From TrEMBL:
Record keywords, A-Z: Angiogenesis, Apoptosis, Calcium, Cell adhesion, Cell cycle, Cell division, Cytoplasm, Cytoskeleton, Differentiation, Lipoprotein, Magnesium, Metal-binding, Myristate, Repeat, Spermatogenesis
GO cellular-component term (any): growth cone
Domain EF-hand residue range list: 142-177
Sections of the chain in a coiled coil: none
Species this chain originates from: Capra hircus
Topology relative to the membrane: Lipid-anchor
Annotated protein name in UniProt: Calcium and integrin-binding protein 1
Compartments where located: Apical cell membrane; Cell projection, Filopodium tip; Cell projection, Growth cone; Cell projection, Lamellipodium
Record-linked PANTHER family: CALCIUM AND INTEGRIN BINDING FAMILY MEMBER 2, CALCIUM AND INTEGRIN-BINDING FAMILY MEMBER 3
GO biological process terms on file: angiogenesis; apoptotic process; calcium ion homeostasis; cell adhesion; cell differentiation; cell division; spermatogenesis
Length: 179
């Protein structure tokens, strides 16, 4: 008795992927709806502009203990206020999934850490990031030392700030960062 290997056609695999995606989106819709059942109707097509408030988004298990939960919600919400439409919610979970491309994850992580309009992460933002990551348990000197080390390691053009390219290169050297 030999092992019989199942062979799928391209069309079968594509149909499977679409089915899995629809199932995942359906599951996320119900999670979204469960956050605010009084706001989000089961027939979402009748009210597609509904937004779930940040307070409910930030209380989700995936975010509630994350020191960047408010900034994550702000980055993914279309108005930057943390209140999310279903599309915003789906985008956030798409980027947070293990299947998301590394560059996409790096791009959003960079946006989350860079809170100013400047497209580079400066000293103040690095300090805020390290302080949040360590939950304020380090002294000012320790935070400053870590920020200097990060800058020494990652600042490719030596301008004292981290560009998206600097950030991506740093991420490549720290593969566990995006898990």
């Amino acid at each position: 008795m030999g092992n019989k290997q199942t062979v799928f056609t391209h069309e079968q695999l594509e149909a499977y992927q679409v089915g899995m995606m629809d199932q995942a989106i359906g599951g996320l819709f119900y999670r979204y709806q469960d956050l605010a059942p009084q706001l989000v109707p089961l027939d979402y097509t009748s009210c597609p502009d509904v937004k779930v408030p940040y307070e409910l988004i930030g209380s989700m298990p995936e975010l509630k203990d994350n020191p960047f939960r408010q900034r994550i919600a702000q980055v993914f919400s279309e108005d930057g206020d943390g209140h999310m439409t279903l599309d915003n919610f789906l985008d956030m979970f798409s980027v947070m999934s293990e299947m998301a491309p590394r560059d996409l994850k790096a791009y959003y992580a960079f946006k989350i850490y860079g809170v100013c309009a400047d497209p580079r992460v400066g000293k103040w933002e690095r300090t805020q990031t390290v302080t949040k990551l360590t939950r304020g348990e380090l002294s000012t000197e320790e935070v400053s030392l870590i920020c200097e080390k990060v800058l020494d390691e990652a600042d490719g053009d030596h301008d004292g700030r981290l560009s998206l390219e600097d950030f991506r290169n740093m991420i490549l050297r720290a593969p566990d960062f995006l898990r």
